[in-house]
Every structure is written in C-alpha cells, then in structure tokens.
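Continuing the batch. This is chain 6 of the set; chains 1 through 5 are on the previous pages. Same settings as before, nothing changed between runs. Recording input and output for traceability.
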Amino acid sequence: MPLLGIPFEVVDPGVPERSDGDPVELVLANAELKARAGSALVGADAYVIGSDTDVVLDGRLLGKPADEAAAAQRLRALSARAHLVHSGVFVLGPGVELRGSESTVVRFRQLSEREIDAYLATGEWRGRAGGYAVQGFGSSLIEGIDGDLSNVIGLPLPLVARLVGSLPIG
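Output for chain 6:
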C-alpha cells in the first residue's frame, strides 16, 4: 500500500545538503532544496515532498559519518545520553508551498566498545544521520524515545499527513 494511501515515486534529487546554521532551520532548508530539485526532475505539475533529517547532540549537528571511525566517534558520544532528531518536510506543487518540522528525543543506553564494534560491523551506520538506524540493528542501542518514531526513521508520517491532507491528491 502506498505511503498514507497516496501513490508516490522516490526520486533522488542529488543536491548537496547545507550543514551550517540553526538545526531546525537547516533541515527545513535542506528539505526545500530537495523538493525544488525533485520538482525540476519530475515537472512543476507534480506534488513533491522533500525531507531532511539530522541528529543534534549538545546543540551540534552530527550529520552522516564519512567513515567507520567517525561513526564510532558518534556512537561513543551518544552513549548513555539523550539527543534530538530533527526532520524538515517541504511540500511543493502547483500553487502550493508547505513546510513543517518535527523533533524527537532519543535516549541511548550505555554502550560498551564491544557493542559499538558489533554495530559498526553491520554497516548499518553508512549514510545515516548520527551514525545509526533505529529501524534496524540500531534499535538495540536505544533506551527510549520521546516523540514520533517515524521521525527518527527519517520521514515523520504524521507531519506529512497533516501537510498533504488538504491537497487534491489521489
């Protein structure tokens, strides 16, 4: 079944993401960049949803680790700590520009070096904000989540549903 009952196609707009600024404004700006680039690929008569997610610890964006050593560093920093996951969503279509953001608190449990090494060996950290994926093996790293789990996975579905709910799609 399509997402939220709406048929869709995934398009990689291939845009470089911004990495400096206020975390919430940054994910919103990146979501807009992706939506506008996606619209250029599929046509202005289509509705396009751009989304961006990042992890923030102590006010600092963690981003996606470039390599395994950087992923290990992120996991050590997150161990036994709470952090924020921010997502921005931008909906673009004929005469429509809608945007919104979602924030979720994620608490990691205390991780041993052995657990960090085992997680890194899964390769799941690649291309993931903060160096983990909660929807896979990364769920074992988590002690708790306050807020929307779908936001941590990468697309806050309740927010998307609110934004597209009034559009003439279907």
